[in-house]
Design goal:
By secondary structure, this protein is an alpha+beta fold. Helices cover 13% and strands 25% of the residues. The strands form 2 sheets. A 7-stranded antiparallel sheet has the order 1-2-3-4-9-8-7, with helices on one face. The chain is globular.
Length: 148
């Protein structure tokens, strides 16, 4: 999808916010919010969408929108459970960066970072993910030793 197509696709939900490119970075983001779920469309290479990231609504905010992975809500199912189920499916889970685990072969990336008060697991990490990024086919391959 091109930049113009991305802007047109999200404009029906309101005026999107566009940031970039900047002198030091070619990244362009097209951002909007639907039902309290924020999302960013990332254009990291020329004029093409490379990823889409969805963000949890935030502390004390509610949304009727559910972001599902294999039937589990990414923002209300414990992060540990989502990663265990992904591994049980045979997917490679790369979690050396515990706050930002990824599933390279499926091109999913998660964030466990927020400045808000959220429950933590026994390791002190946030119990739930705060964002999920869906990238192109090889988006996270740099984080795993995947055969090419």
């Amino acid at each position: 999808m091109t930049f113009d197509e991305a802007v047109a696709a999200v404009s029906e939900w309101g005026e999107p916010r566009v940031v970039g490119p900047r002198p030091h970075s070619p990244l362009v983001t097209v951002s909007s919010t639907v039902d309290e779920v924020a999302f960013q469309i990332l254009l990291e290479e020329e004029d093409r969408v490379t990823a889409i990231e969805l963000w949890w609504p935030g502390e004390e905010q509610r949304s009727s929108t559910r972001v599902l992975l294999d039937g589990e809500d990414v923002f209300t199912t414990p992060a540990r459970q989502i990663l265990e189920h992904a591994a049980a499916r045979g997917w490679t889970v790369e979690d050396a960066q515990t706050e930002n685990p990824v599933i390279p072969g499926v091109s999913l990336g998660f964030t466990r970072q927020t400045s808000q008060e959220m429950p933590r697991d026994s390791d002190g990490r946030l119990m739930y993910f705060t964002s999920v990024l869906v990238g192109g086919e090889e988006y996270f391959d740099f984080r795993a030793d995947l055969p090419t």
